[in-house]
Amino acid sequence: VKNIQESLGELTKFLNFESTAVPTLVGSQKVNVCFLKTNNVFIELIEPAEENSPISSFTANGGGFHHLCFEVDNIQKEIETMVKNGARIIVEPVKGFDDRLIAFLLLNMKNTNCNLIELVETKR
């Protein structure tokens, strides 16, 4: 999103989401993040923290849903499985929000519009 605070207002007003934490800087990714929840659905708002953030061009072009995220117990094992099935690693595992390992992969799916996947390792 271009502005987390403005997006928070809209999502809480129109879709009954509640913020689960205050916006937080993830320096390794050059983004600010904020998590929202309604029922069993969680979303993460991501805002560029710097001009050269990996998502700056995405938000400059209108933004929207960027990727799907899956929590996994063993990030290396999941990456190996996905690569064997044709996925391509975009970002190798690095520490992300809450010091959890994250990785990004691009899936080769012809029938979906969201091919970017984030894996987040379960906190130990």
TrEMBL record:
The keyword Metal-binding applies. Keywords: Metal-binding. Signal peptide: none annotated. Residues 1-122 form the VOC domain. The keyword Transferase does not apply. GO terms for biological process: L-methylmalonyl-CoA metabolic process. Gene3D superfamilies: 2,3-Dihydroxybiphenyl 1,2-Dioxygenase, domain 1 (3.10.180.10). GO terms for molecular function: metal ion binding; methylmalonyl-CoA epimerase activity. Pfam families: Glyoxalase_4. This is VOC domain-containing protein. The lineage of its organism: unclassified sequences, metagenomes, ecological metagenomes.
